[in-house]
Each structure stands twice: as structure tokens, then as C-alpha cells.
């Protein structure tokens, strides 16, 4: 196995059922390798399985067949506790909507996942401040999400995703809820943060203008992942 592979999908299958007889095959033997330091765009029409793929890659769902391998660790027979630990330690998520906790400040939103992972509060607070400063939010660390702009909220969400130093970042339309100017600025900062840390990143997007800034573009075709 390629020792730079952070994420590997091997023969992944996923089918959804609607009612007693309707079957909707989403993935049909999908194979994919994502290496450290690589940023790959995932582009496909709505309803074809982009979010399903990200949920499987992020160990939020399990395939019907095949294997999801994270940093060389097979998850096909892994117990729930092991999957949870692997997801916490190795994977960061950024969604279209920030999903910040409204009653917590920007700093506290970035501190919380670290404390869940067992990081001492003092250390977690320092790392949160460092990440927020890196994303241009040093002056907003004590603000609640409701007092932040849409772009600022998404920057906090990016900082939260990076807080536990993951090796894999999964982003589902990370700028889809922002205006064009803000989306470009936020995506630039996301790319810089990912490249600076040498992460592997899989980014689902409909924004064609972002594609030239990534290393590869893949799509879903007949339930398989192919280079576009």
C-alpha cells in the first residue's frame, strides 16, 4: 500500500432502499486513494452521492461492502469505539453550514473538540487562539457566532476542524452558503491552512471556479469514482 495514502476506498458499495421494493444504488465498487498533501475536488450533480461518500469516508456511516482505510487502518470490521477514536483523532469536517454552538464563543467552539479529545483546557485554549489568529479572527475570539458574519462563522468552523490536528479534512460545499467574494476569501484561507499542514483534503463543491486551485478533480459516474 502507498505509505502516503491517508484515505483509501476499496470496492465501496452503498445502496439505499425506499419502501419495500425501490432500491437506489449510490456507490458500486468505488475505489479511491487520497495522499498526504493532496487536495482533491469532488464534483457531481446533486443527488448522486457526494454527501454519502463524505459520510462514509468520515466514518459517519458504514458501506454495505468494501473497506474504508484511514492511515493504513482498515475499518470494515472495526468496533464502534475504534471508529469513533479514529474519526476524532484523524478526521476534520467542514460543512456548508457552520454548525457552531451558538451559546459558546468562537474560542470556546474551537476549544471544545480538543477537550473532548483529552487536551488540557489551557493547551486547548492556546491552540484555539493560534488557529483563529491564523484565520484572521484574533479580534473576534470572544464573540458568539450570532455576532459574526457568515464568512467569520465559516472560518471558526475551519479552525474547529483543524483543532485536533487531523490528517484528513473532508469538506462538503464549505463555501456554498457564502457570497462570491467571501467564498473566495474563505476558500483561499482553507487551502492555505490545509497546504501548510500537509493534510489530505477531499472537497465537494459545485463551484467550478475553485477547481483549478485543487490538485485533482474526481466525479461519481455509475457508482464509481473517476477522474474528471
From TrEMBL:
<keyword id="KW-0813">Transport</keyword>
<dbReference type="InterPro" id="IPR017871">
    <property type="entry name" value="ABC_transporter-like_CS"/>
</dbReference>
<dbReference type="GO" id="GO:0022857">
    <property type="term" value="F:transmembrane transporter activity"/>
</dbReference>
<dbReference type="GO" id="GO:0005886">
    <property type="term" value="C:plasma membrane"/>
</dbReference>
<dbReference type="InterPro" id="IPR015854">
    <property type="entry name" value="ABC_transpr_LolD-like"/>
</dbReference>
<keyword id="KW-0378">Hydrolase</keyword>
<keyword id="KW-1003">Cell membrane</keyword>
<feature type="domain" description="ABC transporter">
    <location>
        <begin position="7"/>
        <end position="228"/>
    </location>
</feature>
<keyword id="KW-0449">Lipoprotein</keyword>
<keyword id="KW-0997">Cell inner membrane</keyword>
<dbReference type="Pfam" id="PF00005">
    <property type="entry name" value="ABC_tran"/>
</dbReference>
<dbReference type="GO" id="GO:0089705">
    <property type="term" value="P:protein localization to outer membrane"/>
</dbReference>
<keyword id="KW-0067">ATP-binding</keyword>
<dbReference type="GO" id="GO:0016887">
    <property type="term" value="F:ATP hydrolysis activity"/>
</dbReference>
<keyword id="KW-0472">Membrane</keyword>
<dbReference type="InterPro" id="IPR027417">
    <property type="entry name" value="P-loop_NTPase"/>
</dbReference>
<dbReference type="InterPro" id="IPR003439">
    <property type="entry name" value="ABC_transporter-like_ATP-bd"/>
</dbReference>
<dbReference type="GO" id="GO:0005524">
    <property type="term" value="F:ATP binding"/>
</dbReference>
<comment type="similarity">
    <text>Belongs to the ABC transporter superfamily. Macrolide exporter (TC 3.A.1.122) family.</text>
</comment>
<dbReference type="GO" id="GO:0044874">
    <property type="term" value="P:lipoprotein localization to outer membrane"/>
</dbReference>
<dbReference type="InterPro" id="IPR017911">
    <property type="entry name" value="MacB-like_ATP-bd"/>
</dbReference>
<dbReference type="GO" id="GO:0098796">
    <property type="term" value="C:membrane protein complex"/>
</dbReference>
<keyword id="KW-0547">Nucleotide-binding</keyword>
<dbReference type="InterPro" id="IPR003593">
    <property type="entry name" value="AAA+_ATPase"/>
</dbReference>
<protein>
    <submittedName>
        <fullName>Lipoprotein-releasing system ATP-binding protein</fullName>
        <ecNumber>3.6.3.-</ecNumber>
    </submittedName>
</protein>
Amino acid at each position: 500500500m502507498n505509505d502516503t495514502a491517508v484515505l483509501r476506498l476499496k470496492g465501496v458499495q452503498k445502496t439505499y432502499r425506499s419502501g419495500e421494493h425501490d432500491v437506489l444504488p449510490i456507490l458500486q465498487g468505488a475505489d479511491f486513494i487520497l495522499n498526504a498533501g493532496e487536495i482533491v475536488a469532488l464534483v457531481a450533480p446533486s443527488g448522486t452521492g457526494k454527501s454519502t461518500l463524505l459520510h462514509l469516508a468520515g466514518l459517519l456511516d458504514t458501506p454495505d461492502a468494501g473497506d474504508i482505510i484511514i492511515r493504513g487502518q482498515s475499518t470494515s470490521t472495526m468496533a464502534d469505539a475504534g471508529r469513533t477514536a479514529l474519526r476524532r483523532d484523524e478526521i476534520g469536517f467542514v460543512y456548508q453550514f457552520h454548525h457552531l454552538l451558538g451559546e459558546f464563543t468562537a474560542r470556546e467552539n474551537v476549544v471544545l473538540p480538543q477537550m473532548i479529545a483529552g487536551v488540557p483546557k489551557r493547551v486547548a485554549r492556546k491552540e484555539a487562539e493560534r488557529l483563529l489568529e491564523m484565520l484572521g479572527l484574533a479580534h473576534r475570539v470572544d464573540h458568539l457566532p450570532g455576532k459574526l458574519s457568515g464568512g467569520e462563522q465559516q472560518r471558526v468552523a475551519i479552525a474547529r476542524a483543524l483543532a485536533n490536528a487531523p490528517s484528513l479534512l473532508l469538506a462538503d460545499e464549505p463555501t456554498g452558503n457564502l457570497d462570491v467574494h467571501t467564498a473566495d476569501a474563505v476558500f483561499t484561507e482553507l487551502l492555505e491552512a490545509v497546504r501548510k499542514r500537509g493534510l489530505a483534503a477531499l472537497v465537494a463543491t459545485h463551484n467550478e471556479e475553485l477547481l483549478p486551485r485543487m490538485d485533482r478533480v474526481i466525479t461519481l459516474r455509475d457508482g464509481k469514482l473517476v477522474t474528471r
